[in-house]
C-alpha cells in the first residue's frame, strides 16, 4: 500500500519536476496528487484520504481543517527554517531522497498518533493471516521464521490460531506450553519476560517457538491487549529481531487493533476463485473500517500467493496492495520439509 501524498505548489515548474521524480523513483511507495490552487483542498484531502500534505509557504493553510489522519508540513526555500506558523517545514531544494525520508517521518509520526501503533525499534513484527482456510498461511509464516533464522536473526514463530500447533513445524527441548504463558499474562503474578524465556523452545533451524496450548479453549481466553503485551515482551526485553505471528483472521474493530502492532501484514491466498473472493471481501471490509475510524490499517499490508497453480490459480485484479510473492504448489512434502523448501523462496526478502 502506497502513502498518499498531496503537494500544493504555485510554482508549476517545480511541481512538475518533483512529481516526475517521485513517480519515477518511488512509484511503489508514493501515490502523488499535485495541485496549484488551494480551492476545495480540504475537501480533497478528506475524500482522497491523503496521508501527507505538503504546501508551499505561499499559501496560508488553516491547520484546524486538515484531517486528523493527515500529516502536514510547509514547503520552504531555506534549510535554515525549522518551523513556520507553528507547524513543521520541509526544504524543497534538496535531494529527492532526503525529501522522501522526511515524508516518511511525517507519515510515521502521524500514523503512530492516529492508529496507536505499538511499533518500536527493538524488533520487527510480521503478521500472517488469510480470509480463507487451506491456503498455506501457517506454512508460509513458519517458513518466513526459518528464512530469518538462517540469516542469523533471532526469530520467533508465534502461533495464535485457535486450533494452531507450532509443534507441527518445529521441535525442541523444554517444559511447559503456551497455556502457561496465557496464565502468566492474565494473572500478572510472574515476570512475563522471564516466563517467556523459561518456556520458549528452539528448533534445529534456529527458530524459537512455544508448544501448543493444553486446549483450544485456552487460546480463546486471550484478549487483544494481552497479545500486544506478549509481542512487546518478545521484542524487548527478550530481544527478538523478528516476531512472526500466525493468526486467525482478526475481523472486527477490536481485533483489528492488532494490526497496529505489526510492521507488515501478509494476506495469504492460493489464487483460487474462493480464496480470492474472500480476500477481496476482507480487503473491502478493512478499507471501510479504515475510513470510519480514521486509522491507517491498509498501509503495510501485502498479498502472498501460496500453493499457486498455473492451471487453477490467478491473481486478484484491481488491488493497490503490494504483492509479496508467488509460491508454487509443492506435492508430497511433510510439514517440516515444506517449510524448509518455502524458506528458500525470495518471497520473504521484502520483509527484511
Describe what you observe in this structure.
Helix content is 35%, strand content 20%. The protein has 352 residues and is of the alpha/beta class. The strands form 2 sheets. An 8-stranded mixed β-sheet has the order 9-10-8-11-7-12-13-14, with helices on both faces. Strands 2-1-3-4-6-5 form a 6-stranded mixed β-sheet, covered by helices on one side. A hairpin with a 5-residue loop joins strand 9 (201-202) and strand 10 (208-209). Helix 5 runs antiparallel to helix 6. The radius of gyration is 22 Å and the shape is globular.
The arrangement of helices and strands along the chain is EHEHEEEEHEHEHHEEHHEHEHEEH
N/C terminus separation: 17 Å
Q: Gyration radius, to the nearest Å?
A: 22 Å
Average of per-residue pLDDT values:
89
The helical percent reads 25-40%
Strand fraction band? 15-25%
Strand order of the largest sheet: 9-10-8-11-7-12-13-14
How many helix segments? Answer: 11
Give the helix/strand layout.
Layout: E1 3-8, H1 12-25, E2 30-35, H2 41-47, E3 52-56, E4 71-76, E5 83-84, E6 87-91, H3 96-115, E7 124-129, H4 137-150, E8 155-159, H5 178-187, H6 192-199, E9 201-202, E10 208-209, H7 216-220, H8 224-235, E11 242-246, H9 253-256, E12 264-269, H10 273-293, E13 301-308, E14 322-328, H11 335-342
Parallel strand pairs: 1-2, 1-3, 3-4, 4-6, 7-11, 7-12, 8-10, 8-11, 12-13, 13-14
Antiparallel strand pairs: 5-6, 9-10
Amino acid at each position: 500500500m502506497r502513502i498518499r501524498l498531496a503537494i500544493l505548489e504555485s510554482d508549476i515548474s517545480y511541481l512538475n519536476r518533483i512529481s516526475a521524480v517521485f513517480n519515477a523513483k518511488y512509484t511503489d511507495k508514493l501515490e502523488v496528487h499535485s495541485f496549484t490552487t488551494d480551492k476545495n483542498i480540504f475537501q480533497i484531502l478528506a475524500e482522497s484520504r491523503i496521508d501527507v500534505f505538503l504546501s508551499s509557504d505561499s499559501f496560508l493553510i488553516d491547520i484546524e481543517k486538515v484531517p486528523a489522519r493527515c500529516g502536514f508540513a510547509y514547503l520552504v526555500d531555506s534549510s535554515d527554517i525549522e518551523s513556520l506558523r507553528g507547524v513543521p517545514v520541509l526544504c524543497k531544494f534538496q535531494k529527492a531522497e532526503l525529501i522522501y525520508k522526511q515524508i516518511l517521518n511525517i507519515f510515521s509520526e502521524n500514523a503512530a498518533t492516529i492508529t496507536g501503533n505499538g511499533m518500536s525499534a527493538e524488533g520487527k513484527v510480521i503478521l500472517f493471516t488469510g480470509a480463507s482456510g487451506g491456503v498455506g498461511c501457517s506454512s508460509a509464516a513458519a517458513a518466513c521464521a526459518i528464512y530469518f533464522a538462517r540469516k542469523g536473526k533471532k526469530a520467533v514463530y508465534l502461533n495464535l490460531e485457535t486450533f494452531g500447533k507450532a509443534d507441527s513445524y518445529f521441535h525442541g527441548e523444554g517444559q511447559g506450553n503456551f497455556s502457561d504463558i496465557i496464565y502468566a499474562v492474565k494473572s500478572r503474578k510472574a515476570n512475563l519476560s522471564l516466563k517467556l524465556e523459561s518456556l520458549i523452545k528452539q528448533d534445529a533451524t534456529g527458530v524459537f517457538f512455544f508448544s501448543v496450548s493444553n486446549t483450544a479453549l485456552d487460546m480463546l481466553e486471550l484478549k487483544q491487549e494481552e497479545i500486544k503485551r506478549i509481542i512487546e515482551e518478545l521484542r524487548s526485553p527478550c530481544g527478538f529481531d523478528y516476531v512472526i505471528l500466525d493468526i486467525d483472521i482478526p475481523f472486527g474493530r477490536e481485533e483489528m487493533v492488532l494490526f497496529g502492532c505489526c510492521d507488515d501484514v501478509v494476506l495469504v491466498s492460493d489464487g483460487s476463485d474462493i480464496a480470492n473472493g474472500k480476500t477481496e471481501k476482507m480487503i473491502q471490509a478493512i478499507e471501510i473500517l479504515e475510513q470510519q475510524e480514521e486509522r491507517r490499517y491498509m498501509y503495510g499490508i501485502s498479498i502472498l500467493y501460496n500453493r499457486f497453480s498455473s492451471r487453477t490459480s490467478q491473481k486478484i485484479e484491481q488491488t493497490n496492495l503490494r504483492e509479496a510473492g508467488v509460491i508454487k504448489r509443492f506435492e508430497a512434502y511433510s510439514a517440516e520439509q515444506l517449510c524448509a523448501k518455502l524458506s528458500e523462496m525470495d518471497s520473504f526478502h521484502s520483509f527484511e
